[in-house]
Amino acid sequence: MQKTNIGLAVLFVAGCSGGSSGTNGTDASHSHDGATSDGVRSDGGIDANPRCPTPPRPTPTLSRGLRWVRENPTFISGLMVRMGNPPASFVNEYYDTFGANAAHLWQDGLPNLITAWRTARPTARWLSWVEANGTGTNGQVLGGYPANVPGRIGYQVSDEPRTTQQLDAMGQGAAAIRAADPNALIVFNYTYAADGIEGMLDRAAAMYDHDIISHDDYSASRKVYGHLDIFRKQALADNRAYWAYLNSYYGNNTHDFQPAESDMRWNAFSHALYGFTGFSWFVYQITQNNEDLIPTFFDATGSYSANPTTTRSRAATINRELLNLQRSMSQLRSTDVRYNPVSSIAQPAGTQRWSAGAGGDRYIESITSETSGSEQLMGFFKDDYGDGYVMIMNPNHQNADLISANNNAQTIRVNFNFAAAGECLDRTRVRSLNKVTGAVVDLPLIDDGGGKAHLVVTLAAGDPVLFKYANEIPFAMATW
Question: pTM for the complete prediction?
């Protein structure tokens, strides 16, 4: 049997033939590989078939946050907490070696620390935390910074509201920020543990001007899936982008495990599978004896000269792979998430088992594992044409619970039925985005006769594959 060994995440597109109806338009942030104006394909589609031209692409209606996500490199950062002014060597290593593309500063970010970061790296992008009323440490709105300072992405307003009163205070701060810096992104970060979190999200959507729904959840259990879906559904309903903090610490009585490489991969790529498009590691570095948190990226806290750890190197690799995947995924919209457990009693809360037609897919007949006792996580997406993409993930990771608590790779088989597909769909392959190289590649399908075929991929613990059908619709890809 022919198998495709992915090892690291790949994205494949699986969708409609002929596109979706809508007005013709262009969007400089969104391009597709291999399409020419006359519909002749150079990327391995149905080459030069006059009956399979690329259709016009409808122009989507996007909020400020979603436009930013499409037009800019995906926000990838590590949160710095109360560390003081950094030397230039540390700042440059943060961007060049760790692979972050934005500074993410906490309560002491404005006005002083951000100036130090910008002095070391004048072209660096940045986002800073502000108080609930929108002020910096000097009591001035945005720390007295003028609007649209170079590199400015936006501001996170306070953190994790637990009550309506705290949320309403943040709403007033958001209004002050919008008045001071109208084009900045405004981020509200939540915890799933807040009482009545769904009602709080609804209230914020109805009453307060913000662009990004963010959340943090540092558990490694399958309970996380239900929490991810709360924020996913709210953001999709609000037409907002959604971001997340990723786990890179241990300590205190509620978080006593040090994340392994498989935990980190699962953490990052499960968020991507749910449609999250911004990522910040919590924490990058922090002062000593601060809040009983122990960062995993350095061998000592509170020092800019501390030695980086293997964990930081692993995060740097994940950052590069996330950015490659997000070249496509930032242009897509999540349509469904499914989870296949080993038994019905193991179904994670807030998830559903895969069934035919999930996410609008028309061709998948089954998704199974050739590795005994394994589970699968699946995400479905659409591009502007209405063409579908599928991400399938191996949810195994070291500090998981139940059957997934291991570092085992698994081999997954996807069965397709193309009997009803038109001539514009190539039944011999699917198109996939290789997250290591950033290249769009072919994954071969095995012909089963009668219009049926199957794909076999082997995925390392915590890794996904993303694919699209090879049809007349080109592969969605940002231009940044």
Answer: 0.92
